[in-house]
Predict the structure.
Amino acid sequence: MSTTTAPAVATPAGQTGSIKALGLFVAGVLLSIWAVVTDVRLAYILVYAWFGVGYGLLLQYGRFCMAAAVRDLFAVRVPRMAVGMMIAVGLYALVSAAVTLAGFSGFHPNPMGWHVLIGAAIFGFGIVFTGGCASGSLYKAGEGNVGAMLVVVAISFSQALVVSAGGWLDRLVPASWTASAEAKDMPAELSVTQGWFDQFTAGYVWDLKAATLADRLGATDSPWVAVTVNTLLVAIVPVVVILGLLYWVYFRPGYMRRAKVASPTPGQHLAGVWAMCTASRNTALAGAGLGVLAGAHVWATGAMRAHFEVDNFGELLAAMNHHAGLSMQDTVFDPGYWYITTQEAQWGAWVIERLGVPMRDNLFFGLDNGVPSPLLNAPGFMSIGIIAGAAMMALARREFKWKLPNLEAALFAVVGGTLMGIGARIAMGCNIGAFFATVTNGDPSGWVFLLGMALGAFAGVKVFAWWVDWQAARRGDDLAL
């Protein structure tokens, strides 16, 4: 008697990826259920986490990266990503307007000053060498890119170190900053006159005006007028102007040449603008989705605060008897909207504290942001969610692949990530917190950040091109020898 063994059925690679993506999603759902059952107040963290998953899905789907936007314009004159970025800004602004009128916005404008331009330029220079902005590095880490993971690590530790650095750097601080910081009468344990970043923050940044355009124009008597001014003049009009410039300078010549139109009519120009906005369906859809999702995130966090009757997640942590890692005001970093880099700085500081180095004797961590455990860091879970969401999308689309950088790429990742971390702290935010979230909520300082980031990226493209040419020439000489 013979037995017949059924042949093994191979699972298609695409199906395997989808199964793994579904497995990640199910694991996230189960962990979320466990968290809420453990303590319903942990739902506050889950809001950040699941919006992070949404961001990660969209970022990976459209391969959406602001580093690519500025780099592609200067290196290859392709406006695709910049167009997607503007679409996201416009839609985020409209949703944010509705959220603000509903009373759920927790947005705080950034101080306007030279530091925004300089910090953004350093940040923009760094993104050219890492190949990704702050959000781009997170979603690429979710694709299995180890170089992007190195960027995240470099951003985390460089920020933590730069805000706590002192010593010889203190001698570079202007006396006016020291005097102004000392006059703030901060708690003695923060040592506000020691450490350059504390003096930069308390002695310079805090003396600047942080306001929306409506605040600056005195148009705040009516919420409707204020929101209209902020949304229309700070976001929508600049977006329309920038899209027009992108079309006229980058897209129009090739489009009209392909259409064989010598003297285009206004209607043909409008058709050209539409063609530019839809040239990459994935990027356009991702930009639109990110805009809507980011606005919804503001509403969801505001609703969660109203439900729990708190202004900051630190209050919930204290109520749950999790006091370790809170600032001296019992607060933690809790922006209430899409934000990146500060939570990564907290990761770096938490590791350094585990090594025995105090990290809460400075303004950045000690006064407001704290150094919570990564397991209780709400915005930190947003970043983790971005990585997880990107991994789900990459697996489902068969784009997940472990990518190990060579030594040169790893060095670029660490150096570029370090520059991004330094720039983000000087500018008080990155491409998300200092640009995307600001201009969409009426803060014109975000456009200053974008200008600085573009200038830094332009310089970075030139330096990177020189490096590539020099390396090619050197290798050619070696071969000749």
In short: The mean pLDDT is 90. DSSP finds 20 helices and no strands in the chain. The radius of gyration is 24 Å. The CA atoms of residues 144 and 401 lie 5 Å apart.
